From TrEMBL:
PANTHER family to which the protein is assigned, alphabetical: GAMMA-GLUTAMYLPUTRESCINE SYNTHETASE (PTHR43785), TYPE-1 GLUTAMINE SYNTHETASE 2 (PTHR43785:SF12)
Keyword Acyltransferase recorded: no
PROSITE patterns assigned to the protein according to its UniProt record, in alphabetical order: GS_CATALYTIC
Record keyword Ligase present: yes
Lineage start: Bacteria, Bacillati, Bacillota, Bacilli, Bacillales
Alphabetical GO biological process terms: glutamine biosynthetic process
Ranges of residues in domain GS catalytic: 88-294
Enzyme's top EC category: ligase
Homology family: Belongs to the glutamine synthetase family.
Keyword vocabulary terms for this entry: Ligase
Protein name (Swiss-Prot/TrEMBL): Putative glutamine synthetase
EC number: 6.3.1.2
Alphabetized GO MF terms: glutamine synthetase activity
Amino acid sequence: MGKRITGDFILENDISEGTHFCNYLLGTNFEMDTDDGYEYMNWDKGYGDYLAKPDWDTLKVVPWLEKTALVFCDVYTVDGEEQIKIAPRNILKEQVKKAESYGLSPHMASELEFYLFNDSFSDINKKGYSKLEPAGHLNEDYNLLQGTKNEPIYQEIRKQMHLMGITIESSKGEAYKGQHEINLKYADALKAADQHLMFKHGMKEICIQNDKSVTFMAKPYAEWTGSSGHIHLSMMEKGTHNNAFYAGDNAENPISDTLKHFLAGIIKYTRDFALMFAPYINSYKRFAPNSWHR
């Protein structure tokens, strides 16, 4: 979500103070409906404004759009004095602060799987999102020849992301026809999250420009292999490149106490994490035992 602000307006005004947007954006579903049950935004309180303040460290030129730049923003109260705690980027920043208070620095990397279609988003909509045919006809897992069929668009995506400063380590075919995977280089947690979001948004824009479409949804059809969004996490000692999960070369057990506590927390809160890792009905189509469709 965002706004397109003209260059003339930016030159004439100090947008570092931010730009307003309706607070309902933090309380809608995919159809942009204003569902009940939200404390911060509801009909009783009335839908007012929040302030989006640019984080200039995220400013990037968008190479696939003419004379266009993009900047991520943090969400504040309309007077600009207080951050909105429930805004996803603010939640992540608070978690990073907590980790840093323990002397740790979380780093992450995204591994994104998706389906490519030779139909445009508009054409798929006209079909009622039914009888979809991926851009391929065989299982593409690690298959260079099958991947070559769509390499022109994947090459363009890799090139444009490189020009934007988002490093792609590799891309490869996945385990169904028209399914592919792209891996982003690790970064500190906030930058990695920004790049994850920008990559998905950017790939969709590039597909629009090429009359194609893409979906990252967990499982478009029950019989198709599921698409994962793997998040790789490492923990550094704050201010260093030392791996906090490694006990050291001389340790009898290379697993550090930090890693043991980390894994224990993951196990304890896995059920709670499902609210974030599998937030949609479609997510649960992937939950099948002993199956590559997971």
